[in-house]
Write a structure and sequence with these properties.
Serine Threonine Protein Phosphatase 5, Tetratricopeptide repeat, single chain, 2 domains, 281 residues, mainly alpha
């Protein structure tokens, strides 16, 4: 596994439970402190619109989103405001602070559905991963899976966290579980191929990646991984072809950069001659 985290950090965490959303922002549950005096009921529609706007800002202008979330929290925005503030911190690359706030939020959501709390813990794990704290990433991902054991996305995220720690056997176990539930899950096939490659189980790794490519021939990640496996199986030319193809499929991406780095490494080691440039039209 290459350690890249899937981007599920900006998913509105209340989408899974409209009931929880309405009650959380209305102040009947989840408020940090009880209201000192009776107040008029909150406008749930307006709060929902504020949350949607805040999350959109978290992706586009995280500084402004953080300001909005803090102001909204002071006015009773409760958990939705807290979540948007944490996501805004991720956009500002303040990953440790974001992870800490997401973990605190998950603990505070005592009346929320287990699946919803698991999503928040999962996002905390991803933030810890971005912060470079692999043990805390794995712990948070594990807490998420404990709350919602058969969620394939949570299992894949825990597998990624396990790979960061070098726990490739544990990663394979989680990905086996995912693929038992959904054998056509391409991302799980790619990740399991990568984990098995790290364990020097090249035949099952190649079998998984060939399945992934058969289902999604234009997946740059899958083609890159097949190149990695081919190299270890002694097929330098096949590896180079895959890496070139991966770069063509996703120019300018991290996958492209990894493919170019692999090719340059092979060139420097004299493993093969550079491909002739294509003739101009």
């Amino acid at each position: 596994m290459n350690g890249a985290w899937r981007n599920r950090l900006t998913v509105p965490f209340l989408a899974a439970s409209a009931v929880y959303f309405v009650t959380a922002v209305s102040g009947t549950i989840g408020a940090a402190e009880p209201a000192a005096q009776p107040s008029a009921p909150r406008d749930a529609t307006a709060d929902a619109a504020t949350y949607e706007r805040c999350m959109k800002l978290a992706r586009q202008n995280p500084g402004e989103a953080r300001n909005l979330a803090e102001t909204w929290h002071e006015r009773g925005g409760a958990h939705p405001a807290d979540h948007c503030a944490a996501v805004a911190l991720i956009g500002l690359k303040q990953y440790k602070q974001a992870a800490t706030r997401l973990e605190a939020l998950a603990q505070a959501m005592t009346t929320a559905p287990a699946g919803l709390r698991a999503e928040v813990l999962d996002q905390a794990g991803q933030a810890w991963g971005l912060a470079g704290d692999a043990p805390r990433a794995y712990a948070a991902a594990g807490a998420a899976v404990a709350l919602h054991p058969n969620d394939p996305d949570l299992l894949i995220d825990r597998a990624q966290a396990a790979a960061l720690l070098g726990y490739f056997d544990k990663a394979v176990e989680d990905l086996d579980h995912v693929l038992q539930m959904d054998p056509a899950r391409v991302d799980a096939l790619i990740y399991r191929a990568s984990a098995n490659r790290a364990l020097d189980r090249l035949d099952p790794a190649l079998a998984d990646i060939e399945k992934a490519i058969a289902r999604t021939p234009n997946s740059a990640a899958a083609v890159l991984e097949r190149g990695n496996i081919r190299l270890l199986k002694g097929d330098n030319e096949g590896a180079r072809e895959d890496w070139e193809r991966a770069g063509q499929l996703a120019p300018g991406s991290q996958t492209d950069m990894a493919a170019k780095a692999n090719i340059e490494h092979l060139k420097s080691n004299g493993a093969f001659e550079p491909a002739n440039p294509s003739p101009r039209p």
